[in-house]
Write a structure and sequence with these properties.
Length: about 220
């Protein structure tokens, strides 16, 4: 029986992909006069906020001069316009799972710079027991899954991840964790063939299907 549920953020709890892309494009244009293409931005996804921005600006993510504050400002300024609310029912689902005593974690490629503003915007403050952020140099989700298991003292069979990217599937399987592939995400829908080829344990087309599945898996 599942005892811990770990959620991705972008595309899983809210339709924030366009916000992320346009915040990088807008901030880089403000800084350099030239906006990168959406494809260029997405090519760095899997890295954290500083990793993506550093790649786009050809800067070391740990450089104190990296203008992360400009990116965060643009991200927050455009949040209401491009990603005003989470998927319907997301907050209520998290509240219900927490009330049942299940352990909840957010595991995202974001860093605190943008994850915390989105949690606040979406009314999800205080709903997660663990906040696990990305790394500027590599996709850290597999390592963060291990950290969650260690913190909770749970086995891989006692947790599940909910995420949308094909890489989420392979990273979960690398540490023996099952995944619910969030096909309600535009990214997962566009990458359907890639996702299915990696054999996720579950693939749901609608966020509304998540509640009955998690109820079954945790009962």
């Amino acid at each position: 029986m599942l005892k811990g549920i770990i959620f991705d953020m972008d595309g899983t709890l809210g339709d924030t992909l366009r916000l992320c892309i346009e915040a990088y494009r807008g901030s880089v244009q403000e800084l350099t006069g030239v906006a990168p293409t959406p494809e260029k931005v997405v090519s760095y996804f899997g890295l954290s906020d500083r990793g993506v921005l550093g790649g786009l600006l050809n800067m070391n993510p740990d450089d104190p001069a990296l203008p992360i504050s400009t990116f965060v400002r643009v991200y927050c300024e455009r949040h209401d316009e491009l990603a005003p609310a989470p998927f319907p029912g997301a907050v209520e689902l998290l509240q219900a799972l927490k009330a049942r005593g299940l352990k909840l974690a957010l595991l995202t490629g974001k860093e605190h710079y943008t994850a915390l503003p989105t949690l606040q915007k979406y009314g999800m403050d205080g709903l997660f027991d663990l906040l696990l952020y990305g790394d500027p140099y590599y996709n850290a989700k597999a390592d963060n899954l291990k950290r969650a298991m260690e913190a909770w003292q749970l086995s891989p069979q006692e947790i599940i991840y909910v995420g949308d990217a094909p890489s989420d599937i392979s990273l979960c399987h690398s540490v023996g964790v099952a995944i619910i592939n969030a096909a309600w995400s535009r990214l997962a829908a566009e990458d359907e063939a890639a996702c299915l080829a990696l054999n996720p344990e579950y693939r749901l087309n609608s966020f509304s299907d998540l509640t009955p599945l998690l109820t079954k898996l945790t009962s």
